# Entry
Amino acid sequence: MIFRQLIDPETSTHTYLLADRNSREAVLIDTVHEQFDRDRTLLRELDLTLRYTLETHLHADHVTASGRFRKELESKVVLGAACGVANADIALRDGDRICFGAHVLVAWPTPGHTCGCITYVCREEGMAFTGDALLIRGCGRTDFQEGNAATLFESVRKKIFSLPDETLLYPGHDYRGRTVTTVGEEKRFNPRLGLGKSEADFVSLMNQLDLAYPKKIDIAVPANRESGLAFSTDLGSIVQERPDAASSVASVMETQGRQDAEVWMGMGI
Ligand code: FE
# Structure
């Protein structure tokens, strides 16, 4: 299988390109509006035909490029059914399969960060794409978009952790330059969801985070309901409206540790 892990530096979002070597059929997981040209160029250079753009969930921190890909390359827009996106071409339910060439991704609903989160599992390659349900040594926040900490705990512990320990897990974001983890690593080292933590610990922690309202949510979520096509506002300008962000994060990191600083920033959105 052809595999590329890409990053949007602005939002620390990972986009994944998967393709079949023989048929040249490809899928993209979690595209970013601002990276449309980058990804379209890569598809062209590798001589790939984009079949599907998959979302792990309805994002609140960035706008998808899925609508632009559908318009230009005739790919299909794919989301979890629970996202409730009317213009999706495919609304995934538990166990639905997305095929490209000889390869298969199976949709596992893993709600809790949002109600519509999907983990895409590629068994034959020993890989899974967890979106924001499980981040490397962390997880997405659970306080908006019908998020629920107890639900997320069950999604991670009963579903994602049911995969073999050596399964490679690719997250929706990473804010420290990391790219991949494994089920076994997260069972041992995830400070929130590792095997030493109880559901009560986790729910209590998540409910005490008292996170700032995500700055981009009021633009990103409605835009993503339209697969990004209605989007015209420059998200970058919104980031610029947070002049104290950098220095404040540095100070939070010093006083409370990096994990809290990430939470303060509203990361894992
Ligand atoms: Fe998210």
In short: The longest strand covers residues 2-8. DSSP finds nine helices and twelve strands in the chain. The first helix runs from residue 36 to 45.
